[in-house]
Write a sequence for this structure.
């Protein structure tokens, strides 16, 4: 599809939405008029019924009036259903508008990504299943646009990934992601300080390191299609207050929420297996409950001896097999108290490190709120 055809298609879609909006407004007006008519006729019919009930004269016949009124009622019901449907679709109009491909550079998905540590391009095994199956957005060409709609497809091919640093430091305040999206690569939205919310589609299977770092997001819902929160995912997001995990998250990576000082509490998913180094350093979490399936927790989850949190944390371990990777002899300084099961591996570690502990049965959440 050439540029002119795309512009015509976009204009036609916008006109269609406008026509549907105007039609809905007309229907609302008509429904209101019909409602007034029905109320008026109902009063007349009730008056006739009252007269018929108290009069000895021949009954007044208003059967035709009743039939006519029922037809109006049915017509109003149909119009009201159309209005309700239009209103329920109103929130999706913006998503259905095709984004303008001129704002983007793109290429066939290659499965390559720059390693965040070595800074070199290499094939990413997590992206291998997407190679050649759609397009990757590689650059955003807009300037002072507040709102960006990423198209579901370009030239007949689905948009399945957003490449590295595509929107880095962009002034956008809202982005509509396509339902075809499978991956958001490293630093894609890093530094987007005006973005407060970002709705991730349920199709997302991969997030790259630093993908939302230093952004203005206030809350984040990670869909159940994800299994891993990447390294530095939301580090330095100083306005982030709430994170909701999907039902398949197994790993929270290195420094994933480091510096998110507004996070005061968090509910870890039951599927979680590993919690990474400094993943919650610099947050305001005072009590952390680790689900029973967790296998390993970094000794520096809340920071190390040099960059630790500003307050100690109460840790509650629900499982018997959870371990903390205390390979070195550094003490567990970020923990003020541990609640755990008798005979658990954590109990043994706490004794070795001389960390205060209590039986899990003594824990009461209200004591730490």
């Amino acid at each position: 599809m050439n540029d002119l055809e795309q512009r015509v298609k976009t204009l036609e879609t916008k006109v269609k939405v406008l026509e549907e909006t105007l039609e809905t407004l007309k229907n609302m007006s008509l429904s209101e008029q019909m409602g007034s008519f029905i109320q008026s006729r109902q009063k007349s019919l009730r008056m006739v019924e009252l007269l018929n009930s108290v009069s000895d004269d021949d009954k007044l016949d208003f059967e035709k009036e009743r039939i006519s009124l029922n037809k109006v009622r049915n017509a109003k019901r149909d119009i009201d259903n159309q209005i309700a449907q239009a209103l329920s679709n109103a929130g999706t109009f913006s998503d259905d508008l095709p984004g303008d491909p001129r704002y983007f550079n793109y290429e066939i998905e290659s499965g390559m990504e720059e390693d965040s540590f070595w800074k070199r391009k290499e094939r990413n095994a997590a992206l291998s299943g997407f190679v050649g199956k759609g397009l990757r957005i590689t650059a955003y060409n807009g300037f002072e646009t507040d709102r960006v709609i990423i198209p579901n497809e370009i030239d007949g091919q689905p948009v399945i990934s957003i490449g590295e640093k595509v929107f880095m430091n962009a002034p956008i305040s809202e982005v509509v992601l396509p339902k075809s999206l499978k991956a958001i690569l490293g630093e894609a939205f890093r530094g987007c300080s005006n973005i407060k919310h970002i709705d991730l589609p349920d199709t997302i299977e991969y997030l790259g390191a630093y993908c939302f770092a230093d952004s203005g997001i206030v809350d984040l819902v990670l869909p159940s299609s994800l299994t891993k929160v990447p390294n530095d995912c939301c580090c330095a997001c100083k306005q982030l207050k709430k994170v909701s995990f999907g039902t398949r998250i197994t790993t929270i990576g290195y420094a994933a929420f480091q510096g998110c000082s507004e996070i005061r509490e968090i509910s870890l998913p039951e599927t979680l297996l590993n919690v990474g180094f400094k993943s919650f350093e610099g947050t305001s979490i005072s009590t952390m409950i680790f689900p029973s399936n967790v296998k390993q927790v970094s000794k520096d989850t809340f920071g190390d001896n040099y960059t630790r949190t500003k307050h100690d944390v109460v840790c509650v371990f629900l499982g018997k097999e959870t371990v903390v990777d205390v390979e070195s002899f550094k003490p567990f300084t970020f923990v003020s108290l541990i609640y755990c099961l008798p005979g658990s591996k954590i109990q043994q570690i706490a004794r070795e490190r001389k960390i205060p502990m209590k039986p899990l049965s003594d824990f009461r959440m209200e004591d730490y709120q």
